[in-house]
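Lab notes, practical 5.
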Amino acid sequence: MKNKIIIGMSVLVVLVALLIWFFGLMPTRIAIEGEKELKILQWKHFVPAYDIWFDAFVKKWGEDNGVTVSVDHVDIANIVKSAAAEIAADEGHDLIEFVTPPADFELGMMDLTDLNQEAQKRFGRQISICRESSFNSTTNTFYGFCHGWAPDPGNYRKSLWTAVGKPGGPNTWEDVVVFGMKIKQDLGVGMGIGMSQEIDSNMAGRALLWSFGASVQDKDEKVVINSPETVAAIKYMIRLYKNAMTDEIFNWNAASNNQALVAARASYILNSISAYRTAQKTIEKVADDIFFTSALKGPGGKGFASAHVINVYTIPKFSKNSDTAKKFLLYLAENYDQAVYNSELYNFPAFPSTAPKLIAPGGWLDVDPFGSDPPGKLAILKSAEEWTVNIGYPGPANAAIGEVFNSFIIPNMFARAARGEMSPENAAAEAERLINAIFEKWRDKGLVGPKTR
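Output from the prediction step:
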């Protein structure tokens, strides 16, 4: 009897020990599971099919890897302010996707040099505009991971340009104003080049400056906006506004020029192919009439354009799931042919090897899988890398350039002169004053190079 009691007590002790051990492990197990989550903040894509695909794509990846994933999509105009709020609060999403180089957020973001090096090792060459939009040469830091970009060609209504004797559309900025004026006078349809506080106006203004030989900074990060070339570009914009546009362009948002083109209220806009894709689904007659041009040439015979968007993911320093985030980004890049296809060829790959069907002979741009008429209408985009530059060209897309971009100083400069509030010379001088202050601030923080090399 005594032996049975001893044995029973021994069993009880063992059971209690096992229970203590088990419940003692539970918090650790829960903590491990809690780390396997991923919260993503990104913009609502201009091609809705992309968001549908992406949400399913990342959910499936999460299921396969034991990761709970959530994705929040916000309007493109709210990305910067949402990111700023999360950085200030020191909490939020593990991945934040920007549509312009987020160099001015570098101090709040993790250094992703290891991720970028691994991606280059796996996928080969990253196109220069994507590297330049995620790397700070002053601090030798990758503040983001650029997975893709969208070209910003000219979109023109062929029937309107044919009616005034220019069936191939404009090749130069001078073509735009000369034939654009005839289209407005003879056919009652204006141009769609914005001067508003939104992304398309920002891109168009920079394309005009670069093509006229002007820029915000030089290659050594010295502010050079106040130049004869800038004044000439401003005078051109005044001429374009007075002869071929209306006041609506001062109040546009990021969707306005798309809507104007699709509604047959614009003869030419600078935009990605998203407006065209919308027309294909809604007004086929308009879609068949939309064609594309490469970057318009300025007085010196050169033409440049900015990317319409630069897709750059960042990982905030407060994230506790950075390893999981990096793993997903490599998976996304590896499968970027799906991103390109499901964006209906809006997204171009940062690493060309990941979507070879896009520009290959007989590939997607030569024969549009989404029903272009003619099928090769988008083939002009095969050369987009040659005429696309980063927003800081000819210098880097540094933190000061990022703040200048997000402050809309360039479209404001053009608008004030076009409305007659300032002379072209005074508008350029005012822009210089504002931009110099921004550059000095970021130089003091050590994120922008010195005035001279």
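Observations recorded by the TA: The longest strand covers residues 37-43. The chain has two domains: 38-151+308-354, 154-306+380-444.
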